[in-house]
Write a sequence for this structure.
């Protein structure tokens, strides 16, 4: 493959949330940072576990665990800083990740439709890795977290 | 008053400084503009001037406190921020609203050098609770919005359910002062 052709192959960042390996398109990942000091304060937004200070910017920390695993993800050594771009949000967020991250080039196959937040899958050493639609993963996780809170309140 | 900038810090020379009080509730610290606080009192010193609400319409407000001819709704800080029950020892009497906030303690008076806007990812009640975030001693702290402890709608609801109570409590205090 020529360098020009290789540059046309999309690349993905593969990372681990709890026990699950997933991927995001390379262009929505800004950087990987190691164990920043996390600050927390009261709030009511699901999935946000605190904020980190990064190069003079406040970066909210978003745990994808509730959406992908059904439970909060375990303590993380690294945070993947991603760009959120929606009609009303344009900012960086940090996602706690476990294990190592890899930057891989590959072709994304269409999603099987099982999980709404999966936009496709890619083959990595014969392992099928789900490629996430970040905003759908956040929205789905938030909904799940809110349902858990409502159920807990109903039981208390 | 310090205006919120974006969530990144501006060069030092363009920042405006603001005197603030740092207070704590449960394990959390918060900042509030000193200009928005009229008085800081120990809860012990308010004993004789507290009136129960006829109809407490929200969990966080159960009493009225009278001070110098004015009456204030007492807002429980831990209930307001949905925190576990704490031990308030201090009350912040606000200047611009008929609100007195119960907090655990005052940690320090300090100078706030930067006010950063709350990241857009925060979508809940915190957008009303906080003016933004600040960095002090390398810690990120939320800056309380004095108008956020009781919104205009909540004040109206309290007044509707306890008509005239705030005014009569204040009048009673004034009368007692004259005797």
């Amino acid at each position: 493959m020529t360098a020009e052709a290789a540059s046309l192959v999309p690349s993905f960042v593969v990372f681990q949330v709890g026990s699950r390996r997933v991927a995001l398109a390379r262009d929505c990942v800004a950087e990987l940072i190691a164990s920043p000091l996390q600050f927390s304060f009261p709030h009511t937004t699901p999935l946000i576990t605190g904020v980190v200070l990064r190069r003079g910017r406040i970066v909210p920390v978003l745990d994808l665990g509730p959406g992908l695993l059904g439970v909060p993800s375990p303590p993380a050594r690294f945070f993947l800083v991603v760009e959120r771009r929606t009609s009303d949000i344009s900012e960086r967020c940090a996602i706690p990740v476990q294990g190592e991250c890899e930057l891989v080039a590959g072709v994304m196959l269409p999603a099987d439709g099982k999980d709404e937040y999966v936009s496709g899958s890619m083959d990595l050493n014969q392992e099928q890795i789900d490629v996430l639609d970040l905003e759908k993963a956040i929205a789905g996780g938030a909904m799940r977290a809110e349902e858990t809170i409502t159920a807990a309140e109903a039981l208390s | 008053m310090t205006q919120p900038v974006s969530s990144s810090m501006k060069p030092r020379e363009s920042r405006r400084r603001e005197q603030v009080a740092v207070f704590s509730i449960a394990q959390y610290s918060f900042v509030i503009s000193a200009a928005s606080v009229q008085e800081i009192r120990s809860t012990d010193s308010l004993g004789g001037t507290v009136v129960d609400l006829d109809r407490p319409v929200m969990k966080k407000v159960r009493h009225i406190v009278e001070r110098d001819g004015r009456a204030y709704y007492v807002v429980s800080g831990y209930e307001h921020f949905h925190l576990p029950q704490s031990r308030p020892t201090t009350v912040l009497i606000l200047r611009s609203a008929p609100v007195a906030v119960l907090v655990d303690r005052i940690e320090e008076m300090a100078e706030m050098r930067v006010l950063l806007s709350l990241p857009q990812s925060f979508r809940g009640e915190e957008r009303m609770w906080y003016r933004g975030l600040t960095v002090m001693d390398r810690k990120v702290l939320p800056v309380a919005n004095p108008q956020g402890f009781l919104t205009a709608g909540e004040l109206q609801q309290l007044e509707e359910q306890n008509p005239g109570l705030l005014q009569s409590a204040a009048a009673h205090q004034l009368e007692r002062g004259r005797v």
Notes: Chain A touches chain B at residues 39-45, 48, 51, 53, 55-60, 62, 84, 88-91, 93 (CB under 8 Å). Chain A has a mean pLDDT of 89. The radius of gyration of chain A is 16 Å. Residues 134-155 of chain A form the longest helix (22 residues).
